[in-house]
Amino acid sequence: MENRVIRIGVDVGGTNTDICAIDEESGALMVYKLPSSLHDQSEAVIQGVNAVAEQNEFDGSSVKRFMHGTTVATNAILETRGVKTALITTGGFRDLLEIGRQKRPSLYDLQEDKVKTLISRELRFELNERMDCQGKIVRDISEEELRDIIRKIKESGAESIAVMLLNAYLNPENENRIREIIEEELPEVFLTVSSDLSKQFREYERLCGTVLNSFVGPEVKKYMDNLKATLESIGIDNIYINHSNGGLMSISESMRFPIKTGLSGPAAGVVGAQYITNLAGEKDLITIDIGGTSTDISLVVDGRFEASDERTISGYPVRIPSIDISTIGAGGGSIGWIDSGGVLKVGPQSAGANPGPACYNIGGKRATITDARVVLGHLNQTKLLGGRLPINAEKSKEAVGELAKRLNMGLYETAKGIISISNSNIVKEIKNVTVAKGYDPSNFCLVAFGGSGPLHAAELIEDMLISRALIPKTPGLLAAYGLLTENMRRDFVQTNVIELQEGTVQILTEQFDALENDAEKWFDDEDIPKENRRREYFLDMRYKGQNHEIRVPVDRETLKDISGIKDAFTEVYERLYSFSSKDAVQIVNFGLSAVGDIVYPKIVADAYSGEDASSAEIGSRSVRESENSFAEYTLYDREKLHYGNIITGPAIIEQMDSTTIVLPGQTAKVDAYLNIIIERK
After folding, report:
1. Nearest C-alpha neighbor of 577 from the set 434, 429, 436
2. What is the pLDDT of residue 662?
3. Is the Cβ–Cβ distance between 216 and 258 less than 8 Å?
4. Region for residue 330 given its phi and psi (left: phi exceeds 0; alpha: psi -120 to 50; beta: otherwise)
5. Alpha-carbon span 633 to 412, nearest angstrom
6. Number of CB atoms found within 10 A of residue 417's CB
7. Pairing relationship of beta strands 285-290 and 445-449 according to DSSP bridges
8. 132-136 long-range contacts, CB within 8 A, separation 24+
9. Count of CB atoms situated within 10 Å of the CB of 599
10. Please, are residues 352 and 370 in contact by the beta-carbon 8 Å criterion?
């Protein structure tokens, strides 16, 4: 095989595993999609990588970077499938894990249980130590007491330990001493120390993150070890894992901090959308990733994605830097059902990859969104995935028909109802991430991807009066493609609550100098060349007396100007809440994102081919508009579309990884990067 330089991105979802590879010299993109192997994700990963390599004639020695988005940690948390874990914490805080924030999970549901406590009380140990709120040690650790606790943990058979001491985010000295002794006594046990994971306040959230990391750590490490060994056996050894913050981390770091991969796949999709739309000249985006199980929605404002440190995973609050992504149970496999009042509902239950929608003919019996699309004619009636996935349209009619009988409605009316309800659920969530944050969604471009995103895009821009939607070249594989565009990234955040006033400039300087020192050490550890090092700064701020803060992006020069910092805070605050105050302002967290730039994928612009798209036509299909009427939609093969082509709806554009609908009255234009831009009339 010829000597080539290949970069591979692999995203594992609940339904499919997506592979994107790019030749760094020619810019040639190679893609593959196959069902996920839910019992062991690595099987589908290796199968897909081998298929792409064989089809495109390269081997593992040509792969310069392998980048992976995984749901192993997330799935383990969702299924509470972790190992026996012990906790060491400050005296008096043994029951914090159960007490939590003393809030009910659902305000109006008195029957709903709180999330499961992952560590039983007998495995939660208190250590008689204390640190004050300034980070000063008030009571030292008793080594004898600690070794006695470790002995009890060893006798219990625990495979993992979480260590979280009060106020350790300010001073990790006591936690570091505990680490030394545990590693000496129990070197084989998986260990998470809270100050390694987070240096932010709020003890319950720090505790949850530390416990979750230890709870799933051994399983994730087992998966990563297996993946690493298998990839190395085929010559791939430069392996990176996607972080929830939209950056890459080494596989060794992912083994230490698996909780950081909690939103691994969705984050890659947002980064991919940001990259391709920046080329297309779009800076303000609503990204909507609709897969087989869920819909992930996020914002990109002025070319920068929204970020957050507060996430909830399966009911457990954690503080990890991440792209701010809102997720609902609305995907192609979401199931239509009837509630106790006889009302049609859709999701969040999903048929997933197995048994899948009824039309897959592998055991699914219940009507899903995909089945409704097949019944209406939106999807190919015989095959998907370029012919590798046979479709049985009669099975879809049977499943939707069964639901229709129970609703006393027509077959097509029920199918349209399933689509309308799913779109309403998505629209509601889009408003939550736009209108609720002070943004007008009509000022944004909707970027739709995931296997099902392009099916909904045209309908959503009509429902929300958004002027245009952009469908990437490979929408069903954009998360995998996004991995190809990602940088190495690490967020350094330190809590230090101070009032914003003239005398705080020195504190600002000192705090960010310390963060920059940490960032430089990370850059050096990751062997990132000095010319490829970049830093982004932010502050988490609030009015004095408030309990929650908002994130304010800043630059290093602004940090010298107190009034400039306050103006930046006021601007963000007024956008969110439509007012501001003359009250004193506090800085809560100091943050620095260290970014190690990599070589971006080479994208070759297409040559202009004119507006005529007739050479891409492959026929037509009847699509049901109502119970008794239908329209003929022209079918197009996306692989045959070129820059400048214009399609007038009604039309359906088919490709291996997705299907795009263009409604009557809409037009679809192909840009120089082969994105499809759908515009409302």
Report:
1. 436
2. 97
3. yes
4. beta
5. 17
6. 20
7. parallel
8. 132/167, 133/167, 133/170, 134/170, 135/167, 135/170, 135/171, 136/171
9. 11
10. no
Give the position of tokens 């995907």: 331
Measured in degrees and rounded to the nearest 5, phi and psi for residue 667 equal: -125, 150
- 676 in Cβ contact with 669 (< 8 Å): yes
* 667/648 Cα distance (integer angstroms): 5
CB atoms within 10 A of CB 577: 12
pLDDT band at 314 (very low <50, low <70, confident <90, very high): confident
Cis-peptide, bond into residue 348, ω within 30° of zero? yes
Per the CB < 8 A criterion, the answer to whether 347 and 422 are in contact is yes
Q: Cα dihedral angle (305, 673, 449, 470), rounded to 10 degrees?
A: 80
Q: Which residue has the tokens 């970027």?
A: 447
If you ran DSSP here, which 8-state letter would residue 527 be given? T
Assign 14 a pLDDT band (cuts: 50, 70, 90).
low
What amino acid is encoded at 452 in this protein? Answer: S
Are residues 638 and 616 in contact, defined by beta-carbon separation less than 8 angstroms?
Answer: yes
- The angle at the Cα of 281, spanning 600 to 657, to the nearest 5 degrees, equals 65
Given a cut of 60, whether residue 575 has pLDDT beyond it is yes
Joined tokens for residue 640: 């045959």
Length of the chain: 681
Pairing of strands 85-90, 124-127: parallel
DSSP assignments along 528-545, one per residue: --GGGEEEEEEEEEEETT
pLDDT of residue 2: 56
Q: How many CB atoms neighbour CB 615 within 10 A? A: 12
- Report residue 121 as tokens: 């009380």
CA distances from residue 183 to 44, 221, 361 in whole angstroms, order as listed: 35, 17, 52
Judge contact between 13 and 70, C-beta under 8 A: no
| CA angle 392–394–396, rounded 5-degree value | 80
**Cβ-based burial of 612 (10 A; exposed 0-12, middle 13-18, buried ≥19):** exposed
E strand or H helix at 207: helix 203-233
What is the rounded CA–CA span in Å between residue 399 and residue 375?
10
Dist CA 422 CA 432 (whole Å): 16
C-alpha span between 427 and 445 (Å, rounded):
14
Where is pLDDT greater, at 425 or 605?
A: 425
Interval 409-462: pLDDT, tens: 999 999 999 999 999 999 999 999 999 988 999 999 999 998 899 999 999 999
Task: Write out the two tokens for 595.
Answer: 């970014």
- Assess contact for 179 and 185: CB atoms under 8 A: no
Task: Give the span between the Cα atoms of 471 and 678, in whole angstroms.
Answer: 8
* Contact yes or no for 540/199 (Cβ under 8 A): no
3-state secondary structure 250-312: EHHHHHHCHHHHCCHHHHHHHHHHHHHHHHCCCCCEEEEEECCCCEEEEEEECCEECEEEEEE
pTM for this entry: 0.86
Start-to-end CA distance of the chain, whole Å, equals 51
Q: Give the number of other Cβ atoms within 10 Å of residue 56's Cβ.
A: 16
Cβ burial of 503 (10 Å; 0-12, 13-18, 19+) is: exposed
